[in-house]
Amino acid sequence: MTAFDYTASPDPIRDDLAEAHRAAWVHIAKPGAWLTGAERVAVAEETRRARDCALCARRKAALSPYAGPEPHTATPALPAALVDAIHRVTTDASRLTRKWYAGLASQGVTDERYAEALGVAVIAISVDGFHHAMGLPLEPLPQPERGDPTRVRPAGLTSGEAWLPMIAAKQVAPSERDLFGKGPLGAAYVMRALTLTPNEVRAWASLSAAQYLSFARMTRLDTGKTLDRAQMELVAGRVSALNACFY
Amino acid sequence: MLRASVEAKQGEVDLRAISEGAKDDSVGVAHAAELTAFAEAALASNAGALAAARDALRAKAGSAALVDAAGVIGNFERMTRIADATGIPLDGASELASSDFRDALGLGAYASASNTSAAPLWRRALAPLLAPAAKKAMARFMRR
């Protein structure tokens, strides 16, 4: 069976979307820099579990998502603190705080493992989000590939601008120059936010080119798609507001 | 980016469509009501309402537009979480260009706004003064 076979969809799905979604699944299944393939697929699985998680629902309804001692439980593949982080990112990201993030280190979640788990989680969420919006069934998660993480940390990282170290535009090494676009948005914080794990940025950028716009088109009016730029930005803005995202 | 993309074509947009949704196209964007209703339904958990929103957008703008909109929804389900889960502040240019409407739309009430309120005082003080120029520069840039 071909992954992301959209031929049965009542609305024709563009080939570039199917290809981008397939590439996203291949990316999730491979060992990363800090997580194994099995851990990465487990991260994606937790984003789906979070949607029906009773604890997340209680936290979401609570005045403070940090009240109460109840933890999420560890899974065979992931420690409890990382499971908890993925669930919070999935269901209540706008109420994450610097203090909460700082507490992850004492629970064994390093910046690198958090960045990679976040990168995987948001890719799964965006592909699933497309399916949900279109009324399509969710694609089965991929089988993890064997292998060890590369444990390669990029050069040029700086700390203090946000919670995670990010590559500074002026210190970027040739091997990571592709992570930065041109123009006023090229080195925007959101582009740099996950540069601690460069391949996660590459993966979301490829997905973005199909689901929204490529880096090159982000500063242009022409979208190359059916919706014009204003229509795209209206949808983007409304989703951001509904997710209570200030950025 | 919404305002810049509309103003680059010499149009005007009612940005309340972002915070409140749109009732019709009078906000300055074609099919605004159907697009915002689709986004709202996609982020809620009512399958019937989502199917109805899909039908409405498809009827008004066609299947290709519906697919594009679903793509943008998926994309910003991702980007909002990247921003919120890494604690990034607004960039200087965005802060300048949006300072005039952030309060009006109530965006400062979002918990994640605290990541930007940590910006230097001089930048926050200058933002309202430089906003008109930043806004024009953004629209000009997109018109290239």
Features:
heterodimer; A: 247 residues; mainly alpha; two-stranded antiparallel sheet; 9 helices; 2% strand; B: 144 residues; 8 helices; globular
- How many beta-strand runs of chain B? 0
Number of helices of chain A: 9
Percent in strands of chain B:
under 5%
Instruction: Please name the two chains that share the biggest interface, counting residues whose Cβ lies under 8 Å from a Cβ on the partner chain.
Output: A-B, 74 and 80 residues
| Helix/strand structural class of chain B | mainly alpha
Fraction of residues in H or I helices of chain B: 55-70%
Order of helices and strands of chain B: HHHHHHHH
Level of helix content of chain A? 40-55%
Give the termini distance of chain A in whole angstroms.
40 Å
> Sheet bearing the most strands of chain A, described?
2 strands, antiparallel
Reported for the largest beta sheet of chain B, the result is: none
Instruction: Give the distance, in angstroms, between the N- and C-terminal Cα atoms of chain B.
Output: 15 Å
Annotation field: number of helices of chain B: 8
* Mean pLDDT reading of chain A: 94
- Which ranges of chain A are low-confidence, i.e. pLDDT below 50, for 5 or more consecutive residues? none
Rg estimate of chain A, integer Å: 18 Å
Order of helices and strands of chain A: HHHHHHEEHHH
Low-confidence stretches of chain B: none
DSSP strand (E) fraction of chain A?
under 5%
Q: What does the oligomeric state look like here? A: heterodimer
Description:
By secondary structure, chain A is an all-alpha fold. Helix content of chain A is 46%, strand content 2%. In chain A, strand 1 and strand 2 (166-167) form a beta hairpin. The radius of gyration of chain A is 18 Å and the shape is globular. The two termini of chain B are 15 Å apart. Chain B contains eight helices and no strands. With 144 residues, chain B is mostly helical. Classes of the chains: A mainly alpha (247), B mainly alpha (144). At the A-B interface, helix 6, helix 7, helix 8 and helix 9 of A face helix 1, helix 2, helix 3, helix 4 and helix 5 of B.
